[in-house]
Amino acid sequence: MDILIVKKFRAWTDIRSLDEWEKDVDTIIELFTDAEKPVNFVAWYVAEPDHTLHHNGYYNGEYEKTLSRLDNLFGYFLSRLDDSGFADEINVILTADHGHIQHSIIDLWWSAKQEHLCDVD
Question: What are the domain boundaries of the chain?
Fold first, then answer.
């Protein structure tokens, strides 16, 4: 059995727009539907809403805009999957690495600046 491993990646810190994410979706569909060497697994990371929450929190309206863009992106992905004829053949798993909370103890930029909450000798 021949195994084909395709490595296409960019830095996870590469924050992208909806148009760019839709191009990612197109590339993913092309990988699955390649007539000669289709892939059977794709892992795709979208750095939102994490990025927006670290830089804006919940309350200035940016979070809702980002969720709307993500909803549109997922709808686009499902539509492209349907159009490809693979909707019943491919498992889609959505996951996240952590949640968020906004409070006054640690400012929003704490993790983005990689500062320590406290130093322990």
Answer: 26-31+40-96
